[in-house]
Specification:
It is a single chain. By secondary structure, this protein is an alpha+beta fold. It has helices at residues 141-154, 156-182; strands at residues 2-6, 16-24, 42-48, 61-63, 71-76, 79-94, 97-106, 117-126, 130-133, 192-194, 197-200, 214-215, 218-219. Strands 1, 2, 3, 4, 5, 6, 7, 8, 9, 10 and 11 form an 11-stranded mixed β-sheet that branches. A two-stranded antiparallel ribbon has the order 12-13. Strand 10 (192-194) and strand 11 (197-200) form a beta hairpin. The chain is globular.
């Protein structure tokens, strides 16, 4: 399970806090003659809009999520079959582990794979943290001017390296500012770069300490 802050600039929608849950299944024979058996797949419950700022407060909470507030599927028969969450309940085991009890409507008729089915699952998941997937923030005029000075004294390669570092710095500052508005960051450690995105690692059962990042002589 992962919390995510994402934004789609093309739709002009403000950044949102959502949750993703991936539930892998044991390989099984789907009974479909046109694909190799057994099939290996997962339930992908994505972009779940849950009214929860703090992942630790999911404990003993149940939700019925509107269809427009989820994007779920399962890949079977070489197609992505839509899945709708009828209900979902979280139970905290301690640390980072939750048990999820959910009722899923698998819309296999959408792609003609099979009849629709109701699936009831009780699974254990581990929370992975908060990922910021905001669009990259461009360097400002001062950064570009500084890069020009570096290029004239140290070469274009050093100038490009400088701009890359400044782009990442601006992205980090912006991500923290946005995340602080949408989520309770006391449940996370200081963010790190991972796979080209900013990841806020989760804090399991440890004393919480505030962390900050300095920007233009201000703490954000």
């Amino acid at each position: 399970m992962l919390a995510r802050i994402s934004q789609n600039p093309s739709t002009q929608i403000e950044p949102e806090l959502t949750y993703d849950i991936t539930i892998p299944l044991e390989p099984f024979d789907s009974g479909l003659d046109h694909v190799s058996q057994p099939e290996a797949t997962s339930f992908r419950l994505q972009y779940l809009k849950l009214p929860v700022r703090d992942w630790r407060s999911l404990d003993r909470r149940s939700f019925q999520i509107e269809r427009d507030d989820q994007d779920c599927s399962i890949y079977i028969g070489v197609v992505h079959n839509p899945v709708e969450i009828e209900s979902i309940k979280f139970t905290h085991f301690g640390g980072l582990r939750f048990r999820i009890d959910c009722v899923l409507l698998c819309c296999f008729e959408f792609e003609g794979v099979a009849d629709n089915e109701i699936v009831r699952l009780s699974v254990e998941v581990e929370f992975q943290g908060l990922e910021s997937a905001l669009e990259s923030k461009r360097s400002g005029d001062l950064d570009i001017a500084k890069a020009g000075q570096i290029a004239s004294t140290k070469g274009k390669r050093e100038a490009r390296r400088y701009l890359k570092e400044m782009d990442r710095k601006h992205r980090k500052i912006e991500a923290i500012q946005v995340a602080s508005r949408l989520a309770d960051l006391t449940g996370y450690a200081e963010p790190i770069w991972e796979r080209g995105k900013l990841l806020f690692p989760r804090l399991p059962r440890v004393p919480l300490e505030a962390w900050t990042i300095e920007s233009n002589d201000k703490m954000v």
